[in-house]
């Protein structure tokens, strides 16, 4: 298997990770080292023994070839001896010692430099590490998240440790979606002041998550959209009138340019308002999850994910094409969905736990007659008194 420039494999009690070297690269490094070793004899025979520039060139080539031959990345995990041996540089190649696995408690997949964005010159690098109280030990890295995730899952299974994906909860790979099934018993209470509404019946669990609302970032984006739609045309017309006179302000060029500013600002404002006021409705059962997003500025959009396609439900920091933040991440075979960006940590953990429990629930053969329905919503945050059955907060 491959993770970036590294190959990894499991052989008995060993999991090996090492730098992938192509045949051409290997022969070039060995050939360069051989030329450097034989250079004194070659220089003496050809008459270049006294040329300082040739000696400097050979020394540089020898250093590069020695680096490539001795510092290639290699990690060995020994399941029987419970040790990890790693070599990533020349210094470690000469004195690398195995470390006990007892120093580490979990496996983590995270993104290096969380502030970086994927682009032409800056790429997201996903790192697989062993985590412990004393720090992290990097095992491998890749620009491909699927490659890094496959290795992280393999290491977690191999060592019997929990796996944390991008800051999420550390759980066993074999039990990423296993939890106590939902029963007719009462669900745990929501955190006080929560705007989440839920309903449990024979068909499964339905969660209604409140809209994100006009958070500071959305309010700033909306204000910027108003500046584009209103301020830019006014400034353009004023400058145009000062340069070409009052009558020229009614010509085609300033009118068309002002119209473009108004349209761009209105479209941007509509997009921000749609994101700020959209809600999520989540229906979960043993068959899978149905996600419905709707709002006053958005038509209803439904996504159905069968249980066989869902890979994990976690609470962590994530980024999608339109939003980023900490929320409930539902990973599936074609990507991930990010929900509940405006919820508190307690609300996110509650919602993530009940969704996993709903997926773990097995359908009852006699569901209708003995079905139990529970519908309840906690008081709104904005109110100073309890509101039973109230709407979600804005």
Task: Please tell me about this protein's structure.
This protein has seven helices and 20 strands. It is α+β, with helices and mostly antiparallel strands and 394 residues long. The chain has a six-stranded antiparallel beta sheet. Strands 16-15-14-13-12-20 form a six-stranded antiparallel beta sheet, with helices on one face. The two termini are 48 Å apart.
Largest sheet: 6 strands, antiparallel
Going across the major beta sheet, what is the strand order? 1-2-3-4-5-6
Distance between the termini: 48 Å
Shape summary? flat
Helices, by number, come to 7
What is the alpha-carbon Rg in Å? 30 Å
- Determine the fraction of residues in helical runs and give it as a percent range: 25-40%
Detail the poorly predicted runs: 114-121, 365-394
Structure described in brief:
With 394 residues, the chain is α+β, with helices and mostly antiparallel strands.
Give the topology, please.
Elements: E1 2-3, E2 6-11, E3 14-19, H1 23-46, H2 52-70, E4 74-78, E5 83-87, H3 90-95, E6 99-100, E7 106-112, E8 125-132, E9 135-142, H4 145-159, E10 162-165, E11 171-172, E12 197-201, E13 204-209, H5 216-244, H6 252-277, E14 279-285, E15 288-295, E16 298-306, E17 310-319, E18 324-332, E19 335-339, H7 345-360, E20 374-377
Parallel strand pairs: 7-10
Antiparallel strand pairs: 1-2, 2-3, 3-4, 4-5, 5-6, 7-8, 8-9, 10-11, 12-13, 12-20, 13-14, 14-15, 15-16, 17-18, 18-19
Helix pairs in contact: 1-2, 5-6
